[in-house]
Amino acid sequence: MKVSIIGASGKIGSVLSYLLAKEHYINHINMISRSKSLSKLEGIKMDIYDALAASGTDADIEVHDDSDMSVVEGSEITILTSGIPRNGNMSRLDLAKKNAEIVKNYSRSISKVCDTKLFVITNPVDVMTYKALIESGYEKNQVFGLGTHLDSMRFKVAIAKFFGVHIGDVRTRIIGEHGDTMVPLLSATAIGGIPICRLPNFENFPYEKVIDAVKNCGKKIIDLKNGSEYGPASAIVNIVKCIANDEKRLLTLSAYVDGEIDGINGICIGVPVKVGRKGIEEVVPIKISNKELEMFMHSVNTIKEYCKKVEKI
Fold first, then answer.
1. For the range 287-294, what are the long-range contacts, defined as Cβ-Cβ under 8 Å and sequence gap of 24 or more?
2. Could you tell me which of 37, 242, 263, 286 has the fewest CB atoms within 10 Å of its CB?
3. CB 174 within 8 A of CB 252
4. Model's pTM, two decimal places?
């Protein structure tokens, strides 16, 4: 599989390039950045080759600037990490108008030269996924964002720590916006197949505190180490692997919703989807509690407002 990473000189892009280079199903990686970052990309490439040599593996890695996007031709997945990063005082939605222009230009350029799956990481990811979809002209299954997959992982960690169980036994997900209006699904949360509400000590689970921590995790990491890279990059690899191996896994990504959940349509937002070789193979029409639906509708309306603001940028 050939993968192109746009914004490969950044925090997430560089770690992602290394992690993907280690995967046996990846035979070619394009690392793409603006021309002023080319020397940095060359250094990252050299560093990755040293790491691969230490582990006895190899990969075909190329470095390109973004002046000629024809280099993405043949890429099964093109991962868009470029954009202005948020600082600790900004919400993800504050970035919408600034990053919409960047996403528009890349999406149009890519779609002219390549029929690919466009995987959006740029924040605010739900709004940028929508922008990438309408600007690229790709089918809705081809364009998706990281969405609340990372938030779901963070929620999973908190649950495992509180109940003192192996993280692999925890099944949970967060839907909605990758941001302040995210919706944790306690109705879909279980440990070892047992609904969380039936477990001893559930009544002491500090739900509000945990959710607040999940919502602010990105900001805290920015404050402590100037940005997150290992978590997002590893989450992205999960998705790429799922597509490469046609795993048909049920994950929570930002995808275009067309009436599958309570008649909601015309928006990209974090929802349960079946992921396989074709990308988003199905938006899963789950049933959630009335309270969760109310929260989800609030999240939908928040994202819709911003999608309208970036449509004509």
1. 288/175, 288/185, 288/187, 288/188, 289/187, 292/183, 292/185, 292/186, 292/187, 293/262
2. 263
3. yes
4. 0.95
Q: Quote the Cα angle for 172-196-283, to 5°.
A: 30
CA distance 162 to 141: 37
Distances from the Cα of 132 to the Cαs of 15, 97, 112, 135, 246, in angstroms? 23, 13, 13, 5, 23
Is residue 178 among the annotated active site residues?
Answer: yes
Whether the Cβ atoms of residue 91 and residue 303 lie closer than 8 Å to each other: no
Q: Where do we find the tokens 């900001």?
A: 219
- Beta carbons of 16 and 5 less than 8 angstroms apart: yes
Backbone angles phi, psi at 33, to 5 degrees: -150, 180
Peptide bond into 124 cis (omega under 30): yes
**Options 149, 166, 178, 298, the catalytic residue:** 178
Chunk the chain into consecutive blocks of 10 residues (it has 313) and report each block's average pLDDT, rounded to whole numbers.
97 97 95 96 97 92 95 97 78 81 97 96 96 97 97 96 97 95 95 95 95 92 90 97 97 95 92 97 92 95 92 89
